[in-house]
Every structure is written in C-alpha cells, then in structure tokens.
Amino acid sequence: MSLRRLLCLFPAFVLTTAACALDYPHVTAEPQKTGWPLTAEERAYVVDKPEHDRRPGRESNKHLPQFWPVVPSAGHWGGTSWLDTHAKLVDYVQTNKGPIDVLLVGDSITQQWGSPLDKGVLNDAWKKHFANYKTINIGIGGDKAQNVLWRLDHGGVEGLEPKVVIVMIGNNNMFFVPETGVEAVARGVQMCVANVREKFPKAEVIAAQIVPCQAPGVPFYENIKKTNAALAALKLDSDPKIHVIDLWGNFANADGNIKKALFTPDNIHLSLEGYAVYAERLKPLLDKLVGGKGLGGDVVIPAKKTGAAAPVPASPFASSPSSQTASSAFSATPNEAMLQPTPKTADGKSLVYPYSPYNEGELDPQLTGWPLTDAERAWVTKSEYERKPGHEVQKHLPEMWFVTPTAGHWKPKGGGEGNDWLDHHATIIEKAKAAGANIDIALLGDSITQGWGGGWDGAPFNAAWQKHFGDTKTVNLGIGGDRMEHILWRLDHGALDGVSPKIIILMIGVNNSPLVKANGVPAAAAAHGIKLCVENLRLRCPKSQILLVKILPAFNPSKDVGKEVININAALDTLKLNSDPQVQLLDLASDFTHADGTLKSELYSDKYLHPGAAGYEVFASKLKPVVGTLLGK
C-alpha cells in the first residue's frame, strides 16, 4: 500500500494532492487530511468539540485508547487558541518556505529552543552551536503525538525543504498512558517520523527519545523510560535516513535521578544549561547531516541536485489489511466496551448499535419494523457495498460492518432492479406467523442452517432433522449467505415478531470469516456481532432459550479464513455469553476436526464448508441432548 492514499477522505475540500498524508490505523469523524486552510465546517468541528470528544472511538461510542497517539487530532485549549497558535506557525512557514537547514518539530521542549510564537529568537544554546543554520521551529507547548500529526497534515510544514528534521514528541502523551499504554505512544512517535519522512523524502530525520523528568518511581518518569524502550524496539534507524538519539544518560545520573541543574524547577522543562547539553549532543550529528556551511549565513543556496529521491519508508501500519484498524485491533480479544451489556433505545424496543449514524437514521432508516416503507425498500435495493457503514461518508470502517444491521442483497435471477434476499426474508416471516404459537424450535442462521430444510425455498427437513427432531414444531429462518449483520437487520424487521419459540438455535459467522482476512475486520468485532445477535434475540423473545452454536470448522483451520473461524470462536468465549442462564453454547469443533486440527472432510458435502448427510447427522446427535434438556424431555 502506498503511503499516500489515492483519494483523500474529503475530496471536496482538497486543494492539492499534497494535502493527503499517511494511511492512519483508524478514521474518526474529524477531517484529518484536507490540508489548510480549514473549511468553515472543519473549523467548527475542531473548535466546538474538546479534544476528548474527537478521540478515535468516540465517533462510534467505543473506547479505543490504543489509537489515540497514532491518529491525527487537533489540539484544544478552549475556544480557538490552539488553532490560532497553529495558524500563526503556518503563516510563518509560508513566509519562509523554500530550502532550510533544520526543521524542529515537537512540544514545549522543542518550542523553547526559540520560536516565532515567543520572541522569535533562538535561545543561546542554539545560537552558539548552530547560528549559521537556517532553522524553523514549529513546536507547540502541550502538544502530543496526535497533535503533531494533525499539524503536519494541515499546512504546518507545507512549502519547506529542510535538510534535517528533528522530532521530539511524546512527553505530554504520558498523561494518558494509563489508558493508551506505552507501546501506543511509541507508535505515535513512529508515525510522526513516518509522516516527516513521507513529506520530505530527501531529508535526514533525527528522532530524539523523550528526556527523563521528575524522579524514579514517579509514573511520568517510569512511563517515559518504558516508552523509550518501546521506541528503541521499533528500530526506526533501520532506515538509513533516520537517526535515533538517546538523551537519557545526558540528563540522568547513574542512580537514575535527573540532573536537576539541567531542568527548570518543575523538573520537566529544560534549563538553559539543559539546552546547552542537548545542543552539544546534537552538534556532531547535525553538522554531519547538514553537510558544511548552513543557509543562515551569507551563503549562496546551491542548485538542487537531480536524481531519484531516497525511498520513503513504509507507514508503521502499511502492512495491515486495513488502514482503519491496526495491531491489537486485529486480535481475537474483545475490548472492555464489548464486554458490557449493549444499551437499548429509550422505548426499550431496539438495541443501540456501536455505529451511531445507524441509530440516528443517517445511514439507513432501519429501526422501523416490518413491513418496509417505500423509501426503505428503495434503499435496500441498492447493492450492499453501497450501504456498508462508512460508505455514506467515504470512509472505510470495516470494524463497524458486522455490528451494524444491514439488509442482504441478491440480484433478481431475471435481471433488473430488486432484491430477492428481501423476498426470502418476507417468506420466512410468513412461515413464522403461520406456525403461530407454541413453536418448539426456531432455526436462525446462514446456508448451514437453511440446509436443515423447512425454510424459504420449500425444501423438506433433511433426514437428520426428521430423525432426531421430527416430533418438534420447528420453523427454519435460515438464509444462505447471511452474515451476522443480516441477522441483526432481520430481527429488527419482523423476523420473529409475534412469536416466542421455546428454543432459538443460532449459528452464524462463517460468511463473516473471509472478511476478517480480506478487509481487516477485527476478529473481536465478529464476536461482538454474534453477541449483538444474542442480545437482540433476548430483547425480542425474552422467554426463549437461546442455543448458540459456535461456527463450525471450515476451510483450512491452520491458515487464512479457516484460522479466522478459530479466532472468532476464541473471542466469543471471552464474551462469556452463557453467563446468562437463558443462553447455552455448543462447541462442535472436536466433532468436525481430527486430533491434528484438520477437517473431517467426510462430514462435508463440499469437503470444506457445508455439512453433508453424515455431517448433519453428527450435528443433530450433538444438538439432541441439549435440546431435550431445554424442552424438558
């Protein structure tokens, strides 16, 4: 994946392709790559909302602190003050654009080298060692890694041609380490360096690790030390144009205590003596990288050399299958928000789903029940791709796909407009209504469920079902190809209205598994989707027992999609849905795989996915004792 996206997120606002930047691991509601100046709407967004309301995750009511340091976010000091400060620096950069020797990027420790925000005079330490270097300082006190990313992408360095960029950032991220962890901060620093490398591929970059502060045992001190270790592990200097300097030994004694003379009384910011030490440490490396006399003296600016630019390093997240989710987001471990009960709407009739535009009717008028209005029917005749969460705002939000109700879509066999899937859903609703009261079992799921028979296609119940459950009153609501988001939509649109089965057998998720691999949907989000299906059933059929069958082993369990089935099931275990006494879980993995984990292909009609007659017999025999207990037999 290129470091530049082919399209920016808000193309109507983009003035030049230079406004685009890195592919970040998560996209928030904040306009992140649209350049400078801001539109009135963008300005209102970053001024009216405090920074905590714009953090990654807030746009979908999720707590995603692991993304905070690595996703651009405008700072906020109240009112327009932070944005006005950034604007002053942008103006300064524009009046001084062109070749420079050194660009300083960071927070207050960088700002205090001397900044146009102050008197515009570089401090004595810088002037002593680097007087002839044409230097621009864009440090802003209080900035965090995410604020630097935002400024880099919004005019902060546009038009500059630095020989060397010095980046020191991360100190202010320490306030949030209890939530983000130190690894996320290190990745934020890494992302700032990657951003600079992308914008200035010919420049050398000095990445300065965070200087110590306060004292051993103090959380700030300890977390800075851990962050620097995490940053060192990222090996940024494997890129020959990135030079990492560790200042710890220059600012701390052998016993770990800081050298107080090098700090101001707050034990955080550097004194003039501290800047002298910093400058002396920088000098040999900076002199080498600038390469001779700087541009700040009475010199002639050399002509630009021709030739290919140095290769640009990959984004820290470029290898991820999605630019919206990264690292721990791809694990099978649900976050804390997923473990909590899903809230309900004020009238108690529906769940409040993680993707807030759905609940607000901005994506699809989906919470209106059955039958559909003309407008709703017209909406669901669109291809499913056009209705995925995020598509309506030109964002790729795969982590929201499985947890947001979405109608399926089958093109009419005869061609033309329409949605045969909707017709199958309607047929099933009529079947459930016709069965009336006292339904023993309702089957809900995809083609594996449909394969039991008795569904929308008119097929009779298969031999295994008739053998083991022929004496039960059963309704099959399975539709081939369904995913968990389809089940959610169907439940919100009449699938079980007016009926209360004694048992609902749900198995869903195998059709979601390929999207985990191909589109970067977190396995934990898939498990969360199944949880929402269970909660939806509990809401609509509160007297029913729910028997949740974990996804059957499929494909090759040792790799790719087959492995994602295992990951989703593992995440499902973490959610502990059977802590609800009306929810039972059934795991058939050992019945459909050998001891070495390979599939018992003889149980599948196609050798890898759909059960054959033998497979349904095994399935039914495992269901029977559980169903018998639930029915009181």
Automatic annotation (TrEMBL):
Identify the species of origin: Humisphaera borealis
Question: Which GO-annotated molecular functions does the record name?
Answer: phosphatidylcholine lysophospholipase activity
Matches recorded under InterPro entries: Ester_Hydrolysis_Enzymes (IPR051532), SGNH_hydro (IPR013830), SGNH_hydro_sf (IPR036514)
Entry protein name: SGNH hydrolase-type esterase domain-containing protein
Pfam family name, one: Lipase_GDSL_2
Segment forming the signal sequence? 1-21
SGNH hydrolase-type esterase domain: from which residue to which, for each copy? 105-277, 443-618
* Keywords noted in UniProt: Signal
